[in-house]
Amino acid sequence: MANATPKVILPRVQAHRGAKGVRPENTMASLREALAQGVSWTEFDVKLSKDGIPVLYHDQDLKRTSGLEGLVKDYTFAELQDFEAGAWFDEAYKGEKIPSLEEVLKFHIDNGLHANIELKPSDGEEKETTKAVVDLLDRIWPDHLPKPLFSSFKRDSLEVARDIAPDYPRGLLIYDDLSNWQTHAKNLNCSTIHLWHKMFTPELIAEIKQLGYGIATYTVNEVDRAKELVAMGVDSIITDFPGNTLEALEAE
Questions:
Q1: Which residue from 91, 74, 89 is spatially nearest to 25, judged by alpha carbons?
Q2: Any catalytic annotation for residue 197?
Q3: Which residues pair with 239 in a beta bridge?
Q4: Which of 16, 108, 114, 194 is catalytic?
Q5: Which of 1, 40, 131, 152 has the most CB atoms lying inside 10 A of its own CB?
């Protein structure tokens, strides 16, 4: 167990899977566009290849964004590199690769970006995924930079992060089931709560704040809704259109 919950100052805006609204998600093109749109934080999904390499990919299977049958975890990293990751979004991005987490982290280091790493393991790989991510970070992440935030719906993954990397902040991801969230967040020594935006009420925000957690919400693509949530007390908006959201909130 960690002796104390690591603190993290959330940004006003996080780029969801990069600039997902205008580039193919979880690709270098999407992350580069997020940087160009002025964000300081990105959010992206990580799972393992068959040979244990952390890669950026959201779905368990390859159908939606690569057009193939089969699961991500059934292919080696070298095999995944032969698959398409951009053409599904637009032919202009044909040839985009499934990036390794190592490539993505180096991009963040080089450009001074913060990372919200969603641990999104394939079924049965909750612990292995976290261990592989931590091993990579221990190897390449500079000591002088703020440590990335780990977020996940998978409590098993956050438990491993808590136990083997207690100095990395953790965020509990929640969709619409708020039962026992306080117990889970406390047991996992979380720093932040990341909740589907439609679940927020002023009373819930006040409760989360009173307990000392930062608040992030997803996925908010309408600027009026983003403004409303910030006015209610939400700290961080996770959005597919980070530039638009930044501009709208900075104009307030």
A1: 89
A2: no
A3: 15
A4: 16
A5: 152
Q: Which two tokens stand for residue 22?
A: 């205008």
Q: Where are the alpha helices (H) located in the chain, listed in sequence order?
A: 28-36, 63-66, 77-80, 101-111, 126-140, 155-164, 181-187, 202-210, 223-232, 242-250
* Nearest alpha-carbon partner for 75 in 63, 65, 62: 62
Q: Where are the domains of the chain?
A: 13-250
User: How many other CB atoms are there within 10 angstroms of residue 54's CB atom?
Assistant: 25
In which residue are the tokens 């997902």 written?
Answer: 20
Task: Tell me the pLDDT tens digit for each residue of 83-126.
Answer: 999 999 999 999 999 999 999 999 999 999 999 999 999 999 99
Write out pLDDT tens, residues 7-59. Answer: 899 999 999 999 999 999 999 999 999 999 999 999 999 999 999 999 999 99
CB 43 within 8 A of CB 16: yes
| Class of residue 231 by CB neighbours under 10 A (exposed 0-12, middle 13-18, buried 19+) | exposed
CB 41 within 8 A of CB 121: no
* pTM summary value: 0.97
Q: Is 114 among the residues known to form the active site?
A: no
| Residue 43 main-chain phi, psi, to 5 deg | -125, 135
For domain 13-250, give the CATH number: 3.20.20.190
Report the alpha-carbon distance of residue 30 to residue 141 in Å, rounded.
Answer: 21
